[in-house]
Amino acid sequence: MIHRAIVGSPERFLMVLIEHFGGNFPTWLTPVQVKVLPITEKHLDYANEVTKKLKDAGIRVELDDRNERLQAKIRDAQMEKASYMFIVGDKETEARSVAVRKRNSDDLGAKDFDEFVKSLKKEIQEKVID
Description:
The protein has five helices and five strands; from the N terminus they run H-E-H-E-H-E-H-E-E-H. A hairpin with a 4-residue loop joins strand 4 (about 95-100) and strand 5 (about 105-110). The longest helix has 17 residues, at about 5-20. By secondary structure, it is α/β, with parallel strands linked by helices. The chain has helices at about 5-20, 45-55, 70-80, 90-95, 115-125; strands spanning about 35-40, 60-65, 85-90, 95-100, 105-110. A five-stranded mixed beta sheet has the order 2-1-3-4-5, sandwiched between helices.
């Protein structure tokens, strides 16, 4: 009988990691780091622009372009355990900003898009655990 412990080690490590964080991984480890949530369909153009800029910056992002209420989109993003939600509406489109929410329901308010992306990239590069 041949036994290789290295084959089972990654699976055990991942199980310990998932159990430790309860699925709420730090931003650098989360599969979807940012979820972009347009309030209505008329905000889709700016939401697509935000999504493209985030992808270009190397951030894992998804756009929720479903025709659902904002509360449903927020709930789904929290259930998916996305680290941040960028909410895009009329004010954000005009100001070229985003309203930021963390997955734990902390509303960070309107933030300048470029500045927040810089701080997000820094958080990812430094592998911050919050």
